[in-house]
Amino acid sequence: MSPMGRIAPMSPMKLRPAIALALMACLSIAPICGDDLSITPKPKVQGILAELTAAKDEAQVRRALARLTSAADRPTIIVQLVYALMNTHGDRDAMIPGVVVDRLAITPAELHSTLEPYRQSPDPKVRAQIENLLGKDIAPK
After folding, report:
1. CA dihedral 24, 25, 26, 27 (to 10 degrees)
2. Which long-range contacts (CB under 8 A, 24 or more apart) does 81-85 make?
3. How many angstroms separate the CA atoms of 41 and 84, rounded?
């Protein structure tokens, strides 16, 4: 017998939490792995972006940006900016993603690492927008 003794096999009941954890991990990275590369709106984030569009002064802009960063993580914000760009209704709408990128100091490397998988999206509008954003001008640094 080995010095560690006999290793007892895990019962099925003890394996269930491990299997569930592994499944949740796989599902959480599915967009990165290419399983779901569509971009759908997150109403809370899109609502805050609409507030930014309607902001009348710097104080309103700062409050909206603070709400945005507390409502979503940076990769989610970046993907939602793409959704916003695909659904603009005027010059002011089209400028808001640039304002967010500038004010939150989102780097070209962050943009690239977050959006690169979406080049494989089945949606031609998504692919076109990603190609527009990740053209030769934006390379990871």
Report:
1. 50
2. 81/49, 82/39, 82/115, 82/118, 82/126, 82/129, 82/130, 82/133, 83/39, 83/40, 83/41, 83/46, 84/46, 84/49, 85/129, 85/133
3. 8
Q: Assess whether pLDDT exceeds 70 at residue 109.
A: yes
CA distance 35 to 30: 5
- State the pLDDT at residue 132: 86
Left (φ > 0), alpha (ψ -120 to 50) or beta: where does 139 sit? beta
Q: Is 12 exposed, middle or buried (0-12, 13-18, 19+ CB in 10 A)?
A: exposed
The reported pTM is 0.70
- Dist. CA 37–CA 128, nearest whole Å: 13
pLDDT in tens, 40-51: 999 999 999 999
Residue 96, pLDDT > 80, answer yes
Number of DSSP helices (H) and strands (E) in the chain, helices first: 8, 0
Residue-level length of the chain: 141
Mean pLDDT of 115-127: 94
3-state secondary structure of 130: helix
